Amino acid sequence: MLVPLYEAVYERLDVGPGTRLLGLGCGSGLALLAAASRGATVLTGVEPASPQRLALARERLLPREPGTGAGGRGGGVRLTDRLPGKAAGPGTRAYDLVTAFEPVGCRAGDADGLAVLLAAAAPLAVRGAPVVLVGWGPPERCATSSVLRVATRLADPLRTGTVRLRRARRDDLEEVAGRAGLRPDGSGRVACPFGYADVESALRGLLSTGLFDAAVMATDQAQVDKELTEALHPYRRPDGTVWMPNVFRYLIARTP
Fold first, then answer.
1. Whole-angstrom distance between the N-terminal and C-terminal Cα of the chain?
2. Which region ranges are annotated with the description Disordered (predicted)?
3. In CA terms, which of 187, 193, 219, 235 is 20 to 30 Å from 5?
4. What is the structure's pLDDT at 250?
């Protein structure tokens, strides 16, 4: 669903042959795959939260045959559940781009965790390298925000890991960048509609994010499915598809 965001950022930063990219919170590897398709030379993905997504990223990106690169495209790929101790690839040259495409504001404390991670990643990049942070746009322009609030309403607030989705603030990303010691250097907004073939597909897609896990534990799967189906009703189109317009904001910061 965030492919338009990846492409807009990569186009703005001229990602291509020679780019040495460190992707934080790389998930299932789709953003890294998009960078590989543009000729990025070195790709390192870090996914500490989900072994299942990391496994899918490895399936997508690791060589299919000896001597080939990501999906046979060439280039070096490293996928791990922790931040590398040093830059990957030939020699000791550091990364020249760091991305954190997982939107801030979906999980309790995620801004704090991201600031710490970015501060640790900054020394791996060359001086002045761009670092990309992402957040939700204004709630009134993000249909999915109202659907995600089902997770907050159903989950027991005393349980560890409960999702607390709050309204995005104008300076959220700048605050995270500042705490990580990064210098803001431009931003943009990208439309990223979430579209699904039907309600069942929408349920599978939203539940796969992990944002509803606490709600399932606090109630049960049937209750979460019921509440989600009701929340999706305003976004069903006459042909049965589900369409939720969203806007995401990205910030480009620079390493010291």
1. 32
2. 62-81
3. 235
4. 97
CB 168 within 8 A of CB 139: yes
Cβ proximity of 40 and 15 under 8 Å: yes
32: helix, coil or strand? helix
* Residues near 81 by beta carbon (within 8 Å), at least 6 away in sequence: 46, 47, 48, 51, 54
Q: Which residue has the tokens 């409960």?
A: 162
- What gap in Å lies between CA 83 and CA 32, rounded to an integer? 16
pLDDT in tens, 206-253: 998 888 888 899 899 999 999 999 999 999 999 999 999 999 999 999
Q: Are 132 and 99 in contact (CB under 8 A)?
A: yes
Give the pLDDT means over successive 10-residue stretches in the chain (256 positions). 96 96 94 95 90 91 61 67 71 82 79 92 95 92 89 67 54 93 96 97 92 88 95 96 97 96
Beta partners for residue 21, in sequence order? 43, 97
Separation in Å, CA 196 to CA 24, 204, 209:
26, 10, 15
Strands 42-46 and 20-24: parallel
Q: Please name the residues in contact with 175: beta carbons below 8 A apart, sequence gap of 6 or more.
A: 111
Integer Cα distance of 129 and 174 in angstroms: 16
